[in-house]
């Protein structure tokens, strides 16, 4: 088995006397999509924030490819390949879809572009951006301002920007929340496509059981900040403890 791409060791954060994430130890592997479920207030988003760096742990460690990144800022973690979708806050609303994607490609390419002439640089940028436009089925909207897109297309654009950064860890927090039913399959297909590239590690916080069933290779359950269960979807969803604390309290397809 290959080395885990991401590990949390005894990861803990306290807010005053409240322990929001409590000694969560978990290893995530390349090519695996893990869905994180749990009742409201279980600590899912806080666990995400500890991994992507919006919050710093009170105790424990986050390791990316074996490197301790526990104290790094979010930007340093993103440079190390941790890509998190932020519910539209990454978009430049006044720029077109294509311009948004080009900027993301440029940001990832960094100084590498200085070796090219301005014309060939633009050509290479456009070619790469086109690839992500096509992957997210946004080619026909390339010249629309991001702000004018329907909500579902904005979420797709957000995935395109994330893909353009080529992270090896993808983090999605309820990627279909607030999305109309006709856009939902597109986004789910997109995430399923990421899975086909067996090198990516994908983490997804999700309430909708239909989404969990469609995508999960593995489910981890948080409850009161603790890791309650971890395993293959069928096994986890059928375990009595999960039924009692999770399905019992929030029901099927909550949200
Ligand atoms: N910055 C903060 N200061 C104080 N308490 C916080 C902070 N962030 C989160 N919490 C608390 O930590 C607990 C876990 O919250 P979190 O948002 O991670 O839960 P969640 O599982 O993502 O819930 P939901 O499904 O409702 O989004 C909650 O009790 C919340 O009030």
UniProtKB/TrEMBL annotation:
Residues 6-249 form the ABC transporter domain. One of its GO terms (cellular component) is plasma membrane. InterPro entries: AAA+_ATPase (IPR003593), ABC_AA/LPS_Transport (IPR051120), ABC_transporter-like_ATP-bd (IPR003439), BCA_ABC_TP_C (IPR032823), P-loop_NTPase (IPR027417). It comes from Shimia gijangensis. The keyword Nucleotide-binding applies. This is Amino acid/amide ABC transporter ATP-binding protein 1, HAAT family. It holds the Pfam family ABC_tran. PROSITE patterns: ABC_TRANSPORTER_2. Signal peptide: none annotated. Keywords: ATP-binding, Nucleotide-binding, Transport. GO terms for molecular function: ATP binding; ATP hydrolysis activity.
